[in-house]
């Protein structure tokens, strides 16, 4: 039984092969083995596309980046139309408590990516921040802004 998450419901596709269940990722256009974190990531992607109206073409999932010489992978990034980064999302399994370590992780990613907004979620709890890179500060928000076509 899959964990009910604090996101709107969406139409998903499953596939089962070799005793492993996969879920279709509309961004990567392929089936991904269904782990608890992937369940959260897929809900978040659909929330960003349907509720927040971000175009699929501006969303990127699970890409590698180098931070202090180490290879890391971000969960979700939303780009602005000029190629700058609007939002970074860090997804955790619903079984993982979001704590300072999670915020430190996304903050390290943002040193390399310079996003305007950050989102951390375990599917049950969501936290949103707006970054002020000039003042080297952030402020928590109730939600992230909807997509605005520029």
TrEMBL record:
Pfam family, one: HSDR_N_2
Domain Type I restriction enzyme R protein N-terminal: 36-145
Protein name: Type I restriction enzyme HsdR N-terminal domain-containing protein
Species in which this protein is naturally found: Winogradskyella marina
Phylogenetic lineage: Bacteria, Pseudomonadati, Bacteroidota, Flavobacteriia, Flavobacteriales
């Amino acid at each position: 039984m899959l964990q009910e998450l604090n996101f709107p419901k969406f139409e998903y596709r499953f596939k089962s092969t070799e005793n492993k269940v996969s879920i279709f990722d509309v961004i990567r256009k392929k089936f991904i083995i269904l782990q608890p974190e992937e369940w959260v990531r897929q809900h978040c992607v659909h929330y960003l596309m349907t509720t927040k109206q971000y175009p699929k073409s501006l969303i990127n999932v699970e890409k590698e980046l180098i931070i202090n010489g180490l290879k890391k992978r971000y969960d979700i990034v939303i780009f602005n139309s000029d190629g700058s980064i609007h939002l970074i999302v860090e997804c955790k399994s619903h079984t993982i408590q979001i704590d300072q370590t999670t915020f430190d992780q996304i903050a390290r990613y943002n040193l390399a990516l310079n996003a305007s907004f950050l989102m951390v979620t375990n599917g049950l709890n969501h936290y949103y921040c707006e970054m002020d890179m000039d003042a080297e500060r952030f402020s928590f928000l109730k939600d992230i802004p909807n997509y605005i076509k520029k």
